[in-house]
Amino acid sequence: MCLEVRTRDVKSWKKFDFESGQWSYGTETPPIGKIQSFSYLCSTELSLMCLNNYGDYNHREDWTLDYNNNWIRFEVERLPRDHPGFGRDPRGYILIIGGKQESNGYLPMTEVLLNDETYGNKWASIGELNKARASPGVSSSMKNGTIYVVGGKGSEGSTEILEQGSESWKIISNISLKYPEQEYVSAILNR
Q: What is the pTM of this model?
């Protein structure tokens, strides 16, 4: 198992091997087009994707790496928003949760990118959160299929879950965050 990391100004990836505990240089890729900081980089069944997270009210800069190792604009429309949370659902699909718009404030909307041979490329809604929020932490449990949304600005420190097979989000009342109006990152440790 390894972790690969890339910054927007560097052409090659830094690769961390967990067994040896060492960093090395990985695959070389061309620079990504006009990209902002704070983007979400992930692999899908079809490609490597870079989704913009910052300053994205009306114009988004999402990219995908094609089979010829070139970055091209990912033209599948999604809800314009600034500072959403990104994550993966238990099936491996990309999630975009919450965010903010200039005119509407914090958003409760959630979307999943159905990006595989079955669906092609399309964004689909997976319901609205109970508390609108920007910059939440987003994690999924591979054990039980639950998606967790933690904190974020506007959330009042709440955590919400979407259980596998459910169509509505619910607030977990026994989890409260010490710093409720912060940007969050979350991870689930399956033990």
A: 0.76
